[in-house]
Amino acid sequence: MFEPDSYARKFTDMMSEGFIFIDTKGKIQIYNNKAKEIFGITYIYGISHSAGKIEEGDIIIIGDNCLGKDDGNMTPEALSCIGIRDSGIQNGDALIAIGTYKSGKGEKPVYRHITPDYDTKALELGYTYLDTEIYGIIDFKNKFINLEVKKEKYIMDYINSIGHIVVIDGNTKKLKFYQTHGYTARGEGLYDLLMGKRYRAKGDSEFFDVIGKDIFEIHKGGSTIEEFYEAATGKDISYVNEFKEINGRPTICTLSPVNKDGGRVGAVLKVEDISEIKKAIRERDEALLNLEQMERRFREEESAKKLMPEIIGESREIIDVKRLAIKASKTNSTVLLLGESGTGKSLLARAIHDSSKNKSRPFIHVNCGSIPEALLESELFGYEGGAFTGARAAGKAGMFELAQGGTIFLDEIGEISLSLQVKLLQVLQDKTFFKIGGNRNIEVNVRIIVATNKNLEEEMLKGRFREDLYYRINVFPIWIPPLRERKGDIYPLVQNMLPLICSRLGCETKRISGEALSVLTGYEWPGNIRELENILERAVNLAEGNTILSTHLTIDRIMDYARPKMADIRPLKEVMDEAEKRAIAEAILISGGDKKAAMNALKIGKTSFYEKINKYGI
Length: 618
Known about the structure:
Radius of gyration: 35 Å
Largest sheet: 5 strands, antiparallel
Number of helices: 20
Strand order of the largest sheet: 2-1-14-13-12
CATH architecture of the largest domain: 3-Layer(aba) Sandwich
Shape: elongated
CATH topology of the largest domain: Rossmann fold
Structural class: alpha+beta
Strand content: 15-25%
């Protein structure tokens, strides 16, 4: 109907919208440059490759953000061609997979899949497969899939969904094919390629001409294309500026039948790409969401300062602790406070209780490390009269009974014996216990907060702390950072402590000099806040005037004592062995016990890997 150099084609190529004209047989007669740009029908690529098809032994890398959509109707079952037979993979899942095409021997496939939701940020997989370094990522926030082979990136961005694939020759390990935009029009959907369909070449010389092709060959169906065809073949269908989705791209379309000499000769579809508009709207929505989150965080920080004024400090670290503590105070879950000695765990436990709905009820503090093991059980659970020699005739209520309706704080829980841990576990599970010598099951309604300066996971591995008790108390953990990690809080701590210390000692309030404050901020504080308070109290006693100077601080001697000495230097081989052992153990842990994955991540050989496991007793 139109000559190759016709004025109609030249005119339509000047348009800022996509313009497609089909005849009454559905054959494309005009497909302007803008339409080619919108739907990715281009012929200039960064990396060239020849035409061909996937063959047995080829390495296949797949990145699909929504299985079964805009990927040629890919199915989980079709993954069997690269050795993946996993009933857990469903349509709609996001998947990154590496495998060998139709080969029953060789390397097993490697893959990760998830069912993404709104909060999912990314899915990643890195692996050295058949001596080929491969990395893949689906970035759900920025909407792109990147498949890397030997550091060469093959990136595809998307609007809603996409099926990306890279094919490496199994023999030469060279690139055979990579997916680009417009794959639907070229008939190179992921599923089609895996089923053996040939793909086109890429390169400056490759030209994909759509003129004369069936519209359904270039655009794989969909209601818009069906309406376009029906309008061309005689139906009275038309609309102006309606939202339509074609090949997964959001567009604004105008459909018009074309008549000549009283008869239908085809139809025209004018297409305006609004994916950039949608992208701008999405970026705006994300910016508004980030602003809302920042405002909420700011309100939480202000709330933390007001609700827990006894927790001194304005650093990001301590604000995060306060925010968690406020959340903990609103629930009845068991709270686990972690941190070095002197960081203020007892103070935080009290603050959580005072901010809770049961603040008018008892707060019982039990220092498990300061009570002899033989007495701790009776202190916690009480005893009946005559239960043991020396017991009171009337018996005694335990700390759990005294805390009824309130909070019991078990400090230094890592010091409790294994036998007592069993009884404590029962209280945590059932909120019931028996007194020593008693036969009546006592029910208690208490909030339990525990604290320790020990690494309970290490204690558990050494058999000194029960695993079931650890998981029972580790419901709401809060880590309190040491003072050396939040030195910005030293000044407000000093300003708060000094008046209290002076009042307690019965002397006039003293201030601290800038030089002395500089010395305090330069110290590493192994004893944390408790050590700071002790040093300030000594300084108040030593200072004869109203100003504490650096000479009044007994910190120099401590600093000399804490400074590393020659005797502290360890042999280099010992340090390197320790680092190597830790790296291997962490790799096995992160890979979920998959030693092969850990070995590949560490990039060491199998023999060397297992030798080191035996050497370090991992």
